[in-house]
Amino acid sequence: MRATMPPTDSSSPAAPLASIGRSIRSLRRDQNQIHSFHAAGDSDLDAADAFQRRAADLLTDLLADGQPDLLSLAWTSRLLDAFLLCLDEFRALLFGPGAAAAARPPLDRLVADFFDRAVKALDLCNAVRDGLDLVRQWRKHLAIAAAVLAAAPLGEAQIRRARKALTDLTILMLDDRDGGGGVVGQRNRSFGRANKDARPHAQAQGHHRRSSSGGSSGSGSGSHLRSLSWSVSRAWSAARQLQAIGGGLPVPRPNDITATGGLASAVYAMGAVLFIVAFALVAAIPCQDRGLQAHFSVPRNFPWSGPVTTLYDRIIEESKKKDRKNSCGLLKEIHQIELCSRHLMDITDTAEFPLPEERDADVQEATRELVQVCQSLKDGLDPLERQVREMFHRIVRTRTEILDCLSRPHGTE
């Protein structure tokens, strides 16, 4: 059973979790094992510049030719890999020679602001996890249709069964599209699947909630869409959360950059990376009250400004395409679900059985496309969910460790 993560309060920082994180001493030993920039004799400014260049390179790689299609499962997985690398290197930077500066103005204020925004990303991780589980439910209907249509020869019973599965899928997707979150809004589940063994644990941790409709989790109709632990409240909005993460991101002043040895710029860079990753996740995955209205811009004098701005613009452009405006999510595989379902419904809309040879060939070709989509989802959804979970835990752990470090008297471990 996977551990259940508690919901977070997006209006205040999360309390440190004593059970999460390694000691500061072990972190410092591990610094040489990740992509550290602290070579002997390097200044803080050199290290901060190296971090920004590293972030720029990771984001630029996502835009390079030969990369997976934008907002596909494979591309989104690489985006999360880039974020986790940036976060590890950011942590190494703050635990390096600049650790003392992080406890003093003006860097203490900038670090605190970043972690307040990072805490707001935790509920977003939970909502994205719910969205991935919803796509997993859609895949089950696709798999039914694919299995039925793969049988030969196709008769009226098989066609009707396949169309029933595709109709159920269409209804589910329309519920999400038209309901401002639809099913996702009813499925507030944190990291970990609810099962009969989870209830005592959830109650012991104080995470068990009743749904706002008054029914308990796992009871009544649609119980598979409810959970023992609400990941986000019914009033939670992905669009508002994005604005909270990226809105008013404090641009470091030249004096602050100089006074902090460039660390102020590194904190700003990490904040921008956090936003663009959150923005891409909300764009790609069905989320409660998802929307891309959050305006974001950064000065162009930072090495990572170009790729961040390009990623933002490309995602906005994708959302404005005629055939994507009303989609449940911009994930490439979701678009393929919609296209395959629509195509199969069109070509199986016949009263003639057995199917004419030409029509049968069309069905078989469309079925092969459907099978490919199902396989892509099967291969990609679980690994992506693990990465989103890792993003959640890594943010919590990093914040806890840095707060722990800054709260200790200087020079102690």
UniProtKB/TrEMBL annotation:
Residue ranges spanning the membrane: these are 263-285
Q: Taxonomically, what lineage is the organism?
A: Eukaryota, Viridiplantae, Streptophyta, Embryophyta, Tracheophyta
State the name under which the record lists this protein.
R3H domain-containing protein
Its main localization is membrane
Q: Where in the cell is it found?
A: Membrane
Q: Which UniProt keywords apply?
A: Membrane, Transmembrane, Transmembrane helix
Signal peptide positions are none
Its membrane topology, per UniProt? Single-pass membrane protein
Q: Does Membrane appear among the keywords? A: yes
InterPro entries reported in the protein's UniProt record: ROH1-like
Give the family from UniProt: Belongs to the ROH1 family.
- GO cellular component annotations of the record: membrane
Which segments carry the region annotation Disordered? 183-225
